[in-house]
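Re: the request from the purification team.
They wanted to know what the chain is likely to look like in 3D before they choose a buffer screen. I agreed to run a prediction and write the result into the notebook, where they can find it.
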Amino acid sequence: MSSTFTMPLGPVHVALEEPVYFNLTVEGETVRRVDLTSGHVHRGMEAMATQRNLIMNTTLTERVCSLCSNSHSFTYCMSVENVLGIVIPERARYLRVLAEEIKRVASHLFNTAIQAHIIGFKSLFMHVMEVREMMQDVKETVYGNRMNLASNCIGGVKCDVDRKLLDYIRDMVAKMEPAVDEIREIYAANSMVLARTKGMGLLPRADALRLGVVGPVARGSGIHIDVRKDSPYA
């Protein structure tokens, strides 16, 4: 008699960060198959964008996602500028990249913390979030906000970074680096982390190429790719 059974999970569940539906085929504690259905959240942002002018949509696009908010307004502003033939000042391009990379560090640390949360390593989750607070402080000090930076605008940026702020950013990054190295060592060598992650959820290189994944997911599958270098922005 087969011990395999089907278990539905979601689309709204206490263990899920976002609404998504999983149909799991489980044998004992081993998941044999997963059918995923996403797209349960539709807020009508495309429709709202048609009712607003180009400048108002900068604020709208920044609210697609709070964690990666700056990326959306950044991309939107560049798209409008490309269509209209607007060339922004060189300093504005540097300032945009600076804001984006500050956001990226905070975002990656959040996802690193969530991994600890998912495997039940609560103290590691809190530690990574504590380290992330340093970059959250940078966002709040430089841009006045911890999530939506509101830095981008069509034609440039709203926020300048003077020497004092730049020195502050450098000091905070210098403080963060040893803490991040410590976190990296924990994920690489801690027996509890390895027991709950090693060999789990592997995405073979061939499948990663076929599916067109990018970023850390692609690099985890052995694909040497970084869109910041392969397709430079700003």
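For the purification team: Residues 90-118 form the longest helix (29 residues).
Please add any questions underneath this entry.
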